[in-house]
Amino acid sequence: MAVTEDDPSAVLDELSRNFTYWEPGPGNGSLSSAWYRRNQVHLFGVLLSILGNLVISISLNIQKYSHLHSAQKELAKPYFKSVLWWSGTLLMAVGETGNFAAYGVAPITLIAPLGCMSVTGSAVISAIFLRENLRASDLLGMTVAFAGTYLLVNFAPNMSQAISARTVQYYFVGWQFLVYVILEILVFCILLYFHKRKGMKNIVILLALVALLASLTVISVKAVSGMITLSVTGKMQLTYAIFYVMLVIMIASCVFQVKFLNQATKLYTMTAVVPVNHVFFTTSAIIAGIIFYQEFLGAASLTVFIYLFGCFLSFLGVFLVTRNRENEHLQQSFIDFGNIPGKQMLDKIQPDSNGLSYGTLPDGSDSTQSQSGEKKEA
Q1: What is the pLDDT of residues 271-289, one digit of tens each?
Q2: Exposure string for 264-276, b = 16+ CB within 10 A, e = fewer
Q3: Residues 166 and 3: beta-carbon distance below 8 Å
Q4: CA 2, CA 5: separation in Å to the nearest integer?
């Protein structure tokens, strides 16, 4: 009997051919020549991701320099009219394209934690080009993050999988993913209720919403990128409806991620948003890769432990690099209002550490009354 395209047994056969599970051997779990031979495609994805994150770091610093350069001018023009700002935006698009391609050739659980390279790279680039201080905690954080990256690359899932449309369809209707999506929707609705109805603006709630959307983003990004990669090699996948379903999910989840992330950056400092978002995003992406693409199927317990330890080191490295960074930009802890025309104040005002403002200036009524009183007495 001929096997039809939609036959479940055919899909399972295809999956078994596409996967290379944790094969025993002397090279498994170590950076040996055998390990390199088995993981050339994965290492190419790692290289794409690292380069993409470094390009993103450069783009962010170029955009930051553009804003600083514009602020020094007397007649500042809008940022979107700056050639520097558009150069940074173009580089960011290039970097994100590298990350997008990396998801198509390597597991999610390998690519997602490499986002720490963007944070650590930004610290070095800002120290070189923007003359910002490179602190001891930055150097320690970079060292810890690099150690975590080494463990991640070495002990991430040792599996190869061609992402075809039929593979994505099979996973999309699997009971594991359906249960995961139902639970994720329930948690998302609960968090959204507290955020919208109760007015809770806690950073954990906002970034948890971002992370829940991010899990759908990485699933759809890997599906879309993998199907495009397979189509380029001659096996056309773009005629399947699942490709466009995943494309819509990818775009919609990215848009709403940006919305909630912007709210978090408006309410909290980047030193708080960056490490928390990195931890939440990476954790959500790893869970999504494990559940949807079954990337840790058959993994040894020791390998999983070392991989998780590598994730912890990357989290710690990001925290050390971002810790108290914005506080260094305050050159003085007091602001002198004595030289402002029309305002008289002999003392200095200390900024409010819990707010976004430095307090209020006197309206001048007291000083006016005192001056008029002195004139009357005179």
Answers
A1: 788 889 999 999 999 999 9
A2: beeebeebbbbbb
A3: no
A4: 10
